[in-house]
Amino acid sequence: xxxxxxxxxxxxxxxxxxxxxxxxxxxxxxxxxxxxxxxxxxxxxxxxxxxxxxxxxxxxxxxxxxxxxxxxxxxxxxxxxxxxxxxxxxxxxxxxxxxxxxx
Amino acid sequence: xxxxxxxxxxxxxxxxxxxxxxxxxxxxxxxxxxxxxxxxxxxxxxxxxxxxxxxxxxxxxxxxxxxxxxxxxxxxxxxxxxxxxxxxxxxxxxxxxxxxxxxxxxxxxxxxxxxxxxxxxxxxxxxxxxxxxxxxxxxxxxxxxxxxxxxxxxxxxxxxxxxxxxxxxxxxxxxxxxxxxxxxxxxxxxxxxxxxxxxxxxxxxxxxxxxxxxxxxxxxxxxxxxxxxxxxxxxxxxxxxxxxxxxxxxxxxxxxxxxxxxxxxxxxxxxxxxxxxxxxxxxxxxxxxxxxxxxxxxxxxxxxxxxxxxxxxxxxxxxxxxxxxxxxxxxxxxxxxxxxxxxxxxxxxxxxxxxxxxxxxxxxxxxxxxxxxxxxxxxxxxxxxxxxxxxxxxxxxxxxxxxxxxxxxxxxxxxxxxxxxxxxxxxxxx
Lengths: 103, 430
What we know:
By secondary structure, chain A is mainly α. Helix content of chain A is 59%, strand content 0%. Chain A contains 6 helices and no strands. In chain B, the strands form 8 sheets. In chain B, strands 5-2-1-9-21 form a 5-stranded parallel β-sheet. Chain B is globular. Chain B folds into 2 domains: 13-144 and 288-361, FAD/NAD(P)-binding domain (3-Layer(bba) Sandwich), CATH 3.50.50.60; 147-285, FAD/NAD(P)-binding domain, CATH 3.50.50. The chains are: A mainly alpha, B alpha/beta.
C-alpha cells in the first residue's frame, strides 16, 4: 500500500510530461480508453468477468502496462496489446482511466 | 407514398428537447441543455451503429441528436452465436434490448431505410416513419450474401433449406435443429468462401462447436470442411490442434475447395472437381457490403465493399456519409469483426463531433482487435492486433510486434471470452 502511494506521489511529479503527451489531441486519453472499453467496460467500468480499470491509481496502471509491454508481466493477451502503444499513449490512457468512476 | 400513419418527422422542439434533456449515465459531467448542433442518422444497429450512437451522445455531452434505425427491435450478437449451434448457450443469452440507449438520448427507430437522398440529406423509410432529414449519415449495414454465385441457391426455398446462419437469429436456431435431427452417423458439410468475409475465424469455430455437439450426442457423425481458401484463414495451428486433439478422426478439412453450386434436393455441394454429399449442409456464400450500401452508392471497391477515410470513417464515394464495420473495404490486415466495428463506431463518433464543431478530426487514431474463438464449450483461443494510423500510407496499419494469438487453447480465456461479450454488449448498449 505504502509502495503504491509512493509510486503515485512520484508519478504526480512527472505529471507535466503526461500533460505534454496529451497536448497533441485533447481527447487522446478518452480515445485510447475507448479501446480498453470493449473488454473492460465503458470508461474502464467493467460489468464483470474482467478487471475494472476505472479509478485505479494512475501510476499502478502505467507500471502494469509498461510491464506487459516489456514482457515482464505474464498475461493471456495484454502483453500483445500493450506493445501496440507508445509510452506517451500508455501514460495518457492511465491518466484518463484513473480519473473515471468505477461501477 | 407517405403513409398518414407514419410518424411525423422529428423536427418538433419537444422531440429535440427530450433528447437533449435525457440523463447520460456513466458520462462525466451533466448533459448541457442547449440547442443541438445537428443530427446524425445511423442506419444499422449492430456492433458499429450501436457503438457510434452511444458514443456520439456521450462524447458530445448530448449536443448532437442521434437517431438509430434498424429493422429488428432487439440486438442479437453474431459473436457467441456459434455457442448456440454447439448447444452450450441459448439465443436468449446472446440477445439484448436496446432500451438503455434511450437513457443516453438515442432515438430508436424500428424500420427499414429504403432510400437516401444525399443531396437533400433525407432518409426514406419503408413502414412507420415519414422522410427525415439529417446533417451527417452513418451507414453500418453489415454484409449481404452473394447467392448469385451459387445458381442452386437463388430461390428463397433453397435458402430456407440450406442455411448460412451467418447473421445471428432464426437461422442460428434452425441450424441447431437440423443438427439435432441429423442421423447419428450423418455428415455435416460446411463451405467457406474466399476471404474477405465476415469473421475470418468464425467458420472454424463453428466446426469446433458442431464437433463438440457431435462428440456428446452423435460420436459417429462426421464433418467435412470445404474451404475455398488455401489454408485456415485465422488461428490455423490452434484450430488444427483442437481438431486433432479434441475431435480426432471426426473432421476432414479440404483446402482450395471453392463451392460453385448447390444441389439442394440432392443435398450435394459441387466444386470444380468434386460433388460432396451431406446430411446437413451449411453454405457460407461470398459476401459483400449489404444492399443498402449498394443502393445508396457507397460501394466503390470491387463492386463489394465501401472505401473509407480511416481518419473519420467517411465514405470515399459520398461526402458526409460514414461507413462502419464489415461493409468497409478493410484496412491492411484488418479483419471484419464485431470488435472492430465497435472500434470503427468510436473513431467515427469522435471525428463527427470534431467536424460538426468545425474542428479537424484527430489525425492519429488507433484502434485494436480482440477475437475469442471457442474450440469447445470451455476452451478458447484468441487473436489480437493493434492498428495505428500511418500518415504516409493514409490508412490504419498493424503495429509490428504487437498482437498475436493464444499460446494454446485454455479455459482462462474461456471465461474471458464470455466476459468480453458482456462488456462489449454493455459498451454498445449502456
